[in-house]
Structure formats: structure tokens, C-alpha cells
Design brief:
The chain has 113 residues and is mainly beta. The chain is built from no helices and ten strands.
Length: 113
């Protein structure tokens, strides 16, 4: 059974940082590209970061490039999202996605003073 558990969200002031984690199970984690998505209130879910199977290649949406870093630890079936210099417009629910299309429950990030 595929399972994804995101954590690490919270309330942070503009300019602050957070590190999100997504622990995966039920599939061969190291054999798949992994992604982070986010969905802000009233908006569609958007892809923001992608990492290759070995972690050697990453891609980012323009809105987060230079501020967010995706990484993975295949020994722990975990993908991370380090978020720096957070802005109010980064407020959203953040999700990772399994190769079969399943979603985790998400973790809320709120950036506000």
C-alpha cells in the first residue's frame, strides 16, 4: 500500500525558513523521480520542485527558484524541501506525490507577520 506522510509545515514570518519532509512507503522509492507540489487557497495545485532518482538533477518552478531546495535520502525513503526567504505568497498546502498518482495528506505552510 502506497503511503506518503508530509511534515514540517507551520507558521513562519516573511524571510523565515522551513524544511518539509515526505516519508514514502509501498513502492521502490529510489527508482522514481519525486516531486513537491503546493496548492494555495482558491488556486490549482502546482508543481514546484522535481528531483531525479539519485538526486543528481533538480528542477524548480520560477516562483521558488533560488529560494527552495529539493533533496532526497533514498536510505530513508524521504524527500525534503528546504524553503528559505519565505514570502506570504508561499502560503499553501504542500504535498508530495507517489508514482501511481496518490497524494499525501499535505502539510500547511503559512507565511505571515
Amino acid at each position: 500500500q502506497v503511503q506518503l506522510v508530509e511534515s514540517g509545515g507551520g507558521l513562519v514570518q516573511p524571510g523565515g525558513s522551513l524544511r518539509l519532509s515526505c516519508v514514502a512507503s509501498g513502492f521502490a522509492f529510489s527508482e522514481y523521480v519525486m516531486n513537491w507540489y503546493r496548492q494555495a487557497p482558491g488556486k490549482e495545485r502546482e508543481l514546484i520542485a522535481v528531483i531525479s532518482m539519485a538526486g543528481s538533477s533538480t528542477n524548480y518552478a520560477e516562483s521558488v527558484k533560488g529560494r527552495f531546495t529539493i533533496s532526497r535520502d533514498n536510505s530513508k525513503n524521504t524527500v525534503f524541501l528546504q524553503m528559505n526567504n519565505l514570502k506570504p505568497e508561499d502560503t499553501a498546502m504542500y504535498y508530495c506525490r507517489a508514482p501511481n498518482g496518490d497524494w499525501g495528506q499535505g502539510t500547511q505552510v503559512t507565511v505571515s507577520s
